[in-house]
Structures are given as C-alpha cells and as structure tokens.
C-alpha cells in the first residue's frame, strides 16, 4: 500500500509538468535555427532567418524556407507565447525578464536584437483577414520583460530590418509530449491492475 501511495504521488506530480521549448539544428550542426514546442509539435524557424524580408519575398521562395514552412496562425503564436511562460500578453512585468531573455536565446535574437541593444525577438505573420500582418515583439527593457502581439498592425507589404517571419512546420519526428492528465490516468489504471493482481495472488 505504501508503494502504491508513493507511485501515485509521483504521478500526481506530473500534473505540474510543463512542455518545453527546445533548440534544434536546421541545416548545420550548432546553428540552433529551430525551436521545437514539444506540446504542440510545431517547429518554429528562427525569426532572424527571414529578417528584413517581406511576406511576398518569403512566399516566393527567397531564403528557401517556403517549401517546408508556412506562416503561423494567430492562435499558434498565442499558444507559443503561453508555452514560453507568458500568461499575460501586451504588458511589461519584472517576472518576464528571464522569460524574455530565454525566448530570445531560443530564437537567436540575443546580440542582434531588433530595436536596439536590448534583446528583442521581432516577427510578423499574416492576419486571419489576410489583408494585414500581425506583429510579435518579445523581449526585455532594463527592468521588465514582456510578450506583445499586435493584431492587424501593418499592411501585407510591410518590411523592416528588425522583423523576420513567424514560420512553422510540424515536427517530422512527432515529438509531442502527452498531456500530464493522460499520463496520470494511464498510471492510475496500471496501478489498479497491479493491485488487483496482487490481491488475487495474496
């Protein structure tokens, strides 16, 4: 019984587990141009890979990414930012400094930040109405950090040296982390079967 309670406690601890954002290589060892969201199974291309290109340039094949990547939807961007730990968007907060720095490290924006010397990751994506672009800014000021999503902010021909494109593709390896609740239910079921078998043998 003690063993059962110990294992159950460990399984309950999985409820607080979080999926991870993991840096991966794209075309060469150590380039770190991919960020895998293990919960959604989406691979995100580094924002700096398409920095300065317009949407039409990316879609026409400039950079060579349009064959395997597509523009992220607004909901996918919101999901990514939530998985990165930003529970509230479009606000500065001291507790977001570490998150902003970590996000920038993943998207290779540290040292080549948009908007100045402080680390900011900046990207654009096509709005749901297809007539505008959503802008994404994630980073830190001197004492605060934040993740900002500006819907329908710019025309589709918008171009700026600070902004890349928010491009995604589905992870080919299918590395999606199971929901903690699913793992918990599976574990409880296995424990129940083991307990029943032990009773029969006893």
From TrEMBL:
<feature type="domain" description="Ice-binding protein C-terminal">
    <location>
        <begin position="177"/>
        <end position="197"/>
    </location>
</feature>
<keyword id="KW-0732">Signal</keyword>
<protein>
    <recommendedName>
        <fullName>Ice-binding protein C-terminal domain-containing protein</fullName>
    </recommendedName>
</protein>
<dbReference type="Pfam" id="PF07589">
    <property type="entry name" value="PEP-CTERM"/>
</dbReference>
<dbReference type="InterPro" id="IPR013424">
    <property type="entry name" value="Ice-binding_C"/>
</dbReference>
<feature type="signal peptide">
    <location>
        <begin position="1"/>
        <end position="19"/>
    </location>
</feature>
